[in-house]
Write a structure and sequence with these properties.
Chain lengths: ~70, ~475
C-alpha cells in the first residue's frame, strides 16, 4: 500500500453515500434481525470491495503517525 | 489543592493520603445526589488503599510520583475482580479477569483508585446523556450538559471529588466533558497510551487520556500511563517525552496557527471572543500567531469519524444487538444500528483515505506552524434539554455540531489538548484546543502550561453549596 494507491476520486462517491448515511433513520427499518442485516451488508460489502486496494490495519496507522512526528524533538 | 500539590504534600508528610481520601469521599457523599458522577463506590476499599499508601511512606518505601493521591476513573477501565458496567445495563454485572494497562501504570505510580465514574452508555455519545444509568449534571449549572462520553470524569474532577480521572476519546469524549466542566483534557496521539483492558468502542479511533484541573496535573498522569504495551499492538515505539521537564521551557518564538477556515464555522460570538482573547495571551508570551490554511478535506472528517465509530461499534455489539436489543438505551441502540448497514467497501475506503489525509494535514498545517489553536466547541455549553437527542429532531446535525472541532483530531489520530479560557455570559466554561503533530503532547503541555501561568481560569471552582 502506498499513497499513490489511494484513489482521491473516491471522495465524491463517499460523500454521496454519507449523505444517505446521515439521513438514515434506524427506526424506519425493521430491527427484528439486526444480525441478519449485518451479515447481508457485510456480504454485499465484501463483493463490492473485491479487487480494491485497501489497508485497514490500525497498527499500520500508528507506524504512519510515527513517520509524521516532529524530527527535531 | 491540585493533583501535583497533593502529591507533593503527601511526599513531604504535610498531609496523609487518608486525610485527602476522606475529604474526597465526603464530597462524593455530599455532592453526588446533585451531580450523579458516581457509578460505584466502596469507601472501605478506598480508605484501605489510603492507609496502605500512608504505611508505605512511613516505612520509607520509594514513592511513585502519584503516591497516595485519590483518583477515580471512567467505569470502562477494567480492574480484576471489580464490576465494570460501562454505563450500561448489559454489563451491569460484568467482572473482568484482568486489569487495564492504564490502571496498572497508575497503580505503579502510587495513585489510589477510589471510585468508578458514570459515563455515556458504552461511551457512545458526546452530550453526556445516559438513558439507562442516569445522566450526570454539570457542576457549573446542573441544568446544562456535562459533555460526554467521559461525563462522570468531568463532573467528579470539577466537583473536587478526586484529583484527576481517566477518560477515553473516540470522537471528543475527553475534550468535550473537559470543556463543558472547565477542565484540562488530553486526547493523546493514537497509539500513545495502551487501550488494553479498556472497553472498546471503535478500535481505529479509541484513545485513553486524563482529565484534570491543571495542565501540570494532566502531564503528571500522562507521564505515568503513556508508552508501548505488548498487550495493545497499536501502541507506538516512539519514546515518551519528558512532559513534566518540558513544562517550563520558553514558548517565545513558537508558531501558533490560527485556522483560516473550518474551525470557526458557526462559532458563537461569545465563544469567539474568549478564544480570541486566549490567542492574545500566547502573543503576549512571545508566540507568533500565523494564519494557516486548513485542507478542505477536514470538512468531511467529522462525518467520516462517525461512520468509523458506528461501523466498528456495531461489530463489537452485534451479538448483544441480536440477543439483548431491548437492554440498550434508545439513543445507543439507534446509533449502533446505523453501523450495521455500512457497506464494507465504504468502511475500507474511509480507512484508506485516512492515511492520505493525515499526510496532507501534517504537511499543510504543521509544515507552517508548531500547533493549531481552535475553539473546542463552537457553541456555549447547551442545556440538558436542548442537547437531548431523544427529543431533538435535528439528531445527526446536532451531534455533528457538538463534535465539529473534536472529531477531525480522532480521524487524523493527532493529539488535542483542551484548556479552559473563561466563561460565557451564562456562567458556563469555555475552552480552546491545541492540536499538534503526532506524539507532540509535550509541546501542547508546554503551551497550555504557559497559558495557565498567565491566567487564573483553572483556579475557579463551581459553587455546589
Amino acid at each position: 500500500m502506498t499513497s499513490s494507491d489511494t484513489d482521491t476520486g473516491a471522495m465524491p462517491a463517499l460523500l454521496d453515500w454519507l449523505d444517505q448515511f446521515q439521513g438514515f433513520r434506524p427506526e424506519d427499518v425493521s430491527l427484528a434481525d439486526p444480525a441478519g442485516a449485518s451479515r447481508n451488508a457485510a456480504k454485499a460489502g465484501r463483493e463490492a470491495a473485491r479487487d480494491l486496494p485497501f489497508d485497514a490495519d490500525p497498527t499500520g496507522f500508528t507506524r504512519l503517525l510515527e513517520t509524521l512526528a516532529r524530527k527535531d524533538a | 489543592m491540585t493533583l501535583a500539590e497533593a502529591a507533593a504534600a503527601i511526599a513531604a508528610g504535610d498531609v496523609s493520603s487518608r486525610e485527602l481520601t476522606e475529604a474526597c469521599l465526603a464530597r462524593m457523599t455530599a455532592l453526588n445526589p446533585k451531580v450523579n458522577a458516581l457509578a460505584g463506590l466502596d469507601e472501605a476499599d478506598a480508605l484501605a488503599q489510603a492507609d496502605a499508601a500512608d504505611a508505605a511512606r512511613a516505612k520509607g518505601t520509594a514513592l511513585g510520583p502519584l503516591h497516595g493521591v485519590p483518583l477515580a476513573h471512567k467505569d470502562m477501565y477494567y480492574r480484576r475482580g471489580r464490576v465494570s458496567a460501562c454505563g450500561s445495563n448489559i454489563r451491569a454485572d460484568f467482572v473482568p479477569d484482568h486489569t487495564a494497562t492504564a490502571l496498572e501504570r497508575l497503580d505503579a505510580a502510587g495513585a489510589l483508585d477510589i471510585a468508578r465514574l458514570n459515563m455515556v452508555e458504552f461511551a457512545f455519545g458526546v452530550t453526556g446523556h445516559n438513558d439507562v444509568a442516569g445522566t450526570p449534571r454539570n457542576p457549573w449549572n446542573t441544568d446544562h450538559m456535562t459533555g460526554g462520553s467521559s461525563s462522570g470524569s468531568g463532573v467528579a474532577v470539577a466537583s473536587r471529588m478526586c484529583f484527576g480521572a481517566l477518560g477515553s476519546d473516540t470522537g471528543g469524549s475527553i475534550r468535550l466533558p473537559a470543556a463543558c466542566c472547565g477542565l484540562v483534557g488530553m486526547k493523546p496521539t493514537y497509539g500513545r497510551v495502551s487501550r488494553h483492558g479498556a472497553m472498546p468502542l471503535a478500535h481505529s479511533l479509541d484513545t485513553v487520556g486524563p482529565l484534570t484541573r491543571t495542565v501540570r496535573d494532566n502531564a503528571l498522569m500522562m507521564q505515568a500511563i503513556a508508552g508501548i504495551d505488548p498487550n495493545d499492538p497499536v501502541t507506538a515505539q516512539t519514546p515518551v517525552g519528558d512532559y513534566l521537564g518540558g513544562l517550563d521551557k520558553a514558548v517565545r518564538g513558537l508558531k501558533v496557527g490560527l485556522p483560516e477556515s473550518f474551525f470557526y464555522e458557526g462559532v458563537a460570538p461569545e465563544v469567539r471572543a474568549l478564544v480570541e482573547a486566549s490567542l492574545k495571551v500566547f502573543e503576549d508570551r512571545g508566540c507568533e500567531i500565523v494564519p494557516v490554511k486548513i485542507p478542505d478535506a477536514v470538512a468531511v472528517m467529522n462525518r467520516l469519524t462517525n461512520l468509523i465509530t458506528a461501523t466498528e461499534g456495531a461489530a463489537v455489539h452485534s451479538r448483544w444487538m441480536q440477543e439483548r436489543a431491548a437492554d440498550y438505551g434508545p439513543q445507543t441502540r439507534a446509533r449502533l444500528a446505523i453501523g450495521l448497514f455500512t457497506p464494507a467497501s465504504v468502511y475500507l475506503r474511509v480507512l484508506t483515505l485516512r492515511k492520505q489525509l493525515v499526510r496532507e494535514f501534517c504537511d499543510q498545517v504543521f509544515g507552517k506552524v508548531d500547533v493549531l489553536h481552535t475553539p473546542l466547541m463552537v457553541m456555549p455549553v447547551p442545556t440538558l434539554a436542548e442537547s437531548n437527542m431523544s427529543a431533538n429532531p435535528g439528531f445527526a446535525d446536532y451531534l455533528l455540531k457538538i463534535g465539529h472541532n473534536t472529531r477531525p483530531g480522532n480521524f487524523l489520530g493527532l493529539p488535542g489538548l483542551n484548556v479552559p479560557c473563561g466563561f460565557t455570559p451564562d456562567g458556563l466554561p469555555c475552552s480552546f484546543q491545541l492540536m499538534g503533530r503526532p506524539f507532540d503532547e509535550g509541546l501542547l503541555y508546554r503551551l497550555g502550561h504557559a497559558y495557565q501561568q498567565a491566567t487564573d481560569w483553572h483556579e475557579k471552582a463551581p459553587d455546589l453549596g
